[in-house]
Known about the structure:
Elements: H1 5-11, H2 18-28, H3 38-63
Amino acid sequence: MAIDAETKAFLDLxxxxxxxxxxxxxxxxxxxxxxxxxxxxxxxxALLRTQTALFIAALGDQAAEPPxxxxxx
Length: 73
């Protein structure tokens, strides 16, 4: 499955890169992340990165399979 450049860049982040990426991304959309929320934000982004990788891998596996029959009640 082909993914866009932003998703690829997100998936390529290391745990150490997430903090800087979060700050840059927040600034790009005009947000200020409160200091007290940063650890949870970074943890959630790391989890999201892992989930995204799993989702894309699963879609890649399904792309090789024939499409399922359409549901007909």
